Every structure is written in structure tokens, then in C-alpha cells.
Known about the structure:
By secondary structure, the chain is α+β, with helices and mostly antiparallel strands. The chain has a domain at 11-90. 34% of the residues lie in helices and 9% in strands. It has helices at 11-25, 40-52, 91-99, 109-123; strands spanning 57-61, 69-70, 76-77, 86-90. The strands form two sheets. It has a two-stranded antiparallel ribbon. Helix 1 runs parallel beside helix 2. The longest helix has 15 residues, at 11-25.
Amino acid sequence: MSRLPRPYIPLAIRCMVATRQLYEKGINAGQHARREGETLKELLARLLWVLFGDAKLELHHTPSLVNRRRKRNGDYDPAANDYRHLEYMLEDAHDIETRVRGRHGQHSDLALARKNKRIARNRDPKHRKVKIPQRKNPWQKKAATGGSGSG
């Protein structure tokens, strides 16, 4: 299957992700609710400031879109914009998890994609190598068995 285009993540979903991360860190998200007249963009900027300060951030899909299963209609499972499977990460940490190593020493996202592709290719009967049995040489002597021989 070809790769689906990466969908746009709406600001409302991004704010839900940041709010969920506040709860996970134990910060009272009620204090940081949307204020009167505040746009979603301003709310998101304020929530991310509380979480990470002035650091550069990237939104990370967990599991990555490359490694998600696909439904028959072509959508990702879980959906690409599901706020429970998104998280903001520092730019460097996101790069490491994508290219170098995953969480807790697991494979990186790209290495896992390569591994799954290799496994799928090896399961495909068209690409499977068939081992051809060798013919026995009629002139070759049988190996001594060392068992009880008649004698």
C-alpha cells in the first residue's frame, strides 16, 4: 500500500493533546482553561509554554503513521488525528525516537517500519526462497554409524 498523505491536525485537537499532557504531568489543567476572547492558537501557545517553556517542539504520532495498521478504506487505525495517540516532544527527542532508537531501547520508528516490511516480504510466497533438495550421490559411501554391526 502506498503511504497516505499526512493529515492536517486541527488546533482543537492540538489543544486537547496539550491539555492531556498537562494532566499526565500532574499540573492542574483547570487553571489553564481557555480565557474569554482567547483564540485556540493563543491557548495552545500558553499550554505549551507551561509544559515546555521556550523549547522547540514537534507533534509526535505514537505509534508512528508508518507503523500503524490500515483499514480497508485506507484510514489509519488508530486514526491519525486521535488526540490519545499524539504528543508534543522536544525537537531533538522526536528526532531520536524517529531515527535512532525508540522508547526504553526499542527500535526506532523507521527501523520498526523496515523490520515489518522485511517480515511481510518474507511471508510473501512470490519472494520466498525455496530450498532445493540435493540429490544423493550414488557412489558416495555411507558414513560409519558406530553402532552394533554384524561381524
